[in-house]
Amino acid sequence: MPLPHTEAPGYLVSNLASRGVRMTRQRRAILGIIETASHHLDAAQILRKAQKQEPEVDRVTIYRTLSLLKRHGLIDELDLMHLQGEKHFYERKTPREHVHMTCLRCGRVTEFESRLFDGLKKQVQKECRFQIAVARMEIGGYCSSCRA
Amino acid sequence: MPLPHTEAPGYLVSNLASRGVRMTRQRRAILGIIETASHHLDAAQILRKAQKQEPEVDRVTIYRTLSLLKRHGLIDELDLMHLQGEKHFYERKTPREHVHMTCLRCGRVTEFESRLFDGLKKQVQKECRFQIAVARMEIGGYCSSCRA
DNA sequence: AGTCACGATGCAACCAGTTGCAACAATGCG
DNA sequence: CGCATTGTTGCAACTGGTTGCATCGTGACT
User: Fold this and answer.
1) Nearest CA in chain B to A147
2) Which CATH number does the domain housing residue A144 bear?
3) B7: confidence class by pLDDT, cuts 50, 70, 90
């Protein structure tokens, strides 16, 4: 499922720069890759792509950059129900958070926006007096084409 | 937050045995620990407790038993927003699934049941024609005592 | 009780992600 | 423009979790 290209190219770079974050060759490469990604990427894929531009990049730098983006709320980290080992997937934060459904048979990932999801978050904020920073809802099961 | 002791002792053992799963010394020890746990445990804690009963148990056996329980839908695996590294926590499956909120400051974990959560799952099943096996909603943020 | 098939175990080696630390380089200032 | 500050990088070593494989032991059948 391709992600929509809602932001101008360079958005992550300029957003971070405007917050006083230093721009290095490595970061520029990594941010560009995440920005122009057409689907969910894992850390190893980002590393491989980044090394095509900057062969010296270390995987540690990938993880540190991803963690920087998480801290600034610019990407979301997904487990996708640990379908493939323990690795994580990353996507640019979209204006509306959505549910991720992973098919346990074919591995396809579907996204779903719902007013109930938004409502549930509001309810937690209000009834539990809990200030939400990140909310993640992930579902594992069987998609319509894989059901018996 | 203590978990309620809703099931008779030996429930996991007899449940699995009735499905034709072999019972070994190691499994009996691990299942007993999970059953009588008064809070969310991680794999390392389960290993340490199990080795008090059966000193020869290997961590691999812990992970394989946890994965067995997941496959049979008898426990839920939680990330708790990766608050502490990459480790996971485990809890017996309760009749009603609930949301887990983790405070990013004090680390406290709160559980919350909501009709909106149940409704959201129903909506996914119906509108996305997606048959749910596991649903996990985790929230990271700041609890009422930790908010500015 | 004795035998046997096959599932479960432990070990070693591996994958994903994190941390401590010394060397390095992006920015701000003169 | 050159320099100092301080954040960033790469390396090595580590933690948490998984996999392949030879050995072991459960539970079924006699």
Assistant:
1) B131
2) 3.30.1490.190
3) very low
